[in-house]
Design brief:
Blueprint lengths: L9 E5 L3 E10 L2 E11 L5 E2 L2 E2 L2 H13 L8 E6 L4 E9 L3 H12 L10 E10 L6 E10 H13 L3 E7 H12 L7 E7 L4 E7 L2 E8 L4 H11 L3 H10 L6 H26 L7 E7 L8 H9 L3 E3 L15 H7 L4 H7 L7
Parallel strand pairs: 1-6, 6-10, 11-14, 14-15
Antiparallel strand pairs: 1-2, 2-3, 4-5, 7-9, 8-9, 11-12, 12-13
Helix pairs in contact: 4-10, 5-6, 5-7, 7-8
Bound molecules: adenosine-5'-triphosphate and magnesium ion (MG).
Adenosine-5'-triphosphate binds next to helix 6.
Length: 351
């Protein structure tokens, strides 16, 4: 969506409950961790993907930027999701990526429900249609210029420059690809669950086959506990973090009920892919986002989908100096940092 030249970027994931920052340094055969941090946001700072309390968001970003180990890099990669972005797989009459480039603007108008002049557009040619080589499959990504402008403004106020605006689901996929040995014949479902949003991405061999954002997330657990225990949202959030296998039945039951709600919603969404599953059935699920760590959630999803489910470690292959970073801390925050790691691993000019 926004492109420039190849150099190191700071990955900043602006989520509705916190801002996550990751900085990596490219080393021989991989990456080394330079900085990693999380700054909480007050409630309602971001509502339905709109940046409401920009002062608080800028403060959170600034606090993370001020703490950077490597302060020369000032270029940021960030991402959006949900209704801020439209992702469509389309089939065009075109035989080469150059032809796609020439035609895409005109073609896109049919798929984008806004004035084409109000959106920034990007595309990725996925290859020729198997049945008809005169046609090309293209992944179209469009975001409203308003949103791009809002993001540029908050980063500029924080003293850095937004140079790449990605999509949460694609950034999570990049983190996965940076850290796992991917079987090119396996179909993976990557599911990133935040506080208010769930990003689903079914992919095979680096290509996204199905992508969907569902407005649902960790706030469901908190709201359930809040109602049950008659406490505030903040208190319920604190209670949620302390729940273990030995907590009361009441608490575990509440968690399990929401686990099932989320797992069935995942199944419903993935059924859209599974209904034709042209590239093969989903073989394995990887979870990321803060909610990945919810007690028994991975088990519930595994049971309801009848598939193996694993929590992504987006730092699995990233080297770090254990005098600077506590491995236990890294292990705990890892799933939450997935999108930020994927962003930090982007290089300008990447697609
Ligand atoms: N150990 C844990 N157990 C259960 N839930 C957790 C845990 N750690 C974090 N969460 C939940 O994860 C959510 C935050 O995750 P994350 O940082 O990925 O979301 P976000 O990016 O801020 O939100 P979104 O992407 O939806 O805007 C919160 O709902 C939080 O309560
Ligand atoms: Mg998020």
């Amino acid at each position: 969506m926004l492109f420039a030249k190849k150099k190191d970027l700071i990955g900043v994931d602006v989520g509705s409950t916190s801002v996550k920052l990751v900085q990596l340094r490219a080393i021989k055969g991989g990456y080394e961790l330079e900085s990693i941090g999380l700054a909480p946001l007050p409630p309602e700072a971001i509502v339905d993907n709109s940046l409401m309390n920009t002062t608080a968001i800028v403060e959170a970003i600034s606090s993370l930027i001020d703490g950077l180990a490597q302060r020369k890099v000032r270029d940021v990669a960030s991402s959006v999701s949900g209704n801020s972005v439209i992702i469509r797989k389309i089939v065009m009459t075109a035989s080469t990526p150059e032809e796609v480039e020439a035609e895409i603007q005109w073609e896109a108008e049919q798929y984008i429900p806004f004035d084409i002049n109000d959106v920034n557009m990007d595309f990725q040619a996925l290859g020729n249609d198997e049945n008809d080589p005169s046609k090309m499959q293209v992944l179209l990504v469009a975001s409203k210029k308003d949103i791009v402008n809002d993001y540029q403004a908050i980063f500029s106020e924080a003293g850095v420059k937004l140079v790449l605006l990605d999509v949460d689901a694609f950034a999570a996929q990049n983190a996965f690809e940076m850290n796992y040995d991917i079987d090119p014949d396996e179909v993976y479902a990557l599911i990133n669950i935040g506080s208010s949003m769930m990003n689903l991405n079914v992919m095979k061999d680096g290509i996204s086959l199905f992508i969907r954002d569902v407005q649902l997330g960790g706030a469901l657990y908190t709201e359930d506990l809040q109602k049950k225990l008659g406490i505030s949202f903040d208190e319920a959030e604190r209670v949620k973090m302390t729940i273990t296998e030995s907590s009361s039945d009441e608490l575990l039951e509440s968690m399990n009920r929401i686990n099932n709600t989320i797992a069935y919603e995942i199944r419903r969404s993935l059924d859209f892919y599974n209904s034709n599953a042209l590239e093969g059935k989903i073989g394995r699920v990887y979870l990321s986002g803060g909610v990945a760590r919810s007690i028994n959630l991975a088990n519930a999803i595994s049971e309801i989908l009848s598939l193996p489910v694993e929590i992504i470690n987006p730092l699995a292959k990233i080297r770090f100096n254990d005098k600077l970073f506590d491995p236990k801390f890294l292990n705990e925050v890892a799933p939450v940092m997935t999108v930020a790691v994927g962003l930090a691993g982007r290089r300008l000019g990447d697609k």
